[in-house]
Amino acid sequence: MLRVLVVDDSRAMRAFVRGALMEEFDCDVVEAASGFEALRLLPRDNYDVVVTDINMPDINGLELIRFVRKSERHREVPLIIISTQASDRDHERAMELGADNYLVKPFTPEEIVAAVSAVLPSGDG
What we know:
Blueprint: E1 2-7, H1 11-24, E2 27-32, H2 35-41, E3 49-53, H3 61-70, E4 79-83, H4 88-97, E5 101-104, H5 109-119
């Protein structure tokens, strides 16, 4: 079963991503309302994918990427950024820090499913 951590301070966005992924994959979706909450959840479990917003209170998505990429346990976990920030600079910065994919809000259920499918090893989707 696919395990996904969705990190976004918007309850509606977390529900949207959860619904889209559960419709397409046999998955368990864990939600975090902040980067700080994500940092508390990460050591407790293994995740196949992390989907995170950039703009959040406390620890933002870029800081979360840095943490995950430095973590021995999670450094190989694919990271997908979801953000309202659409500039090339924001996209490049996220990718340089180690994001595997970047979606600009608003996006469709098909787009988040495609983004997750693209970062999974073949056969996991």
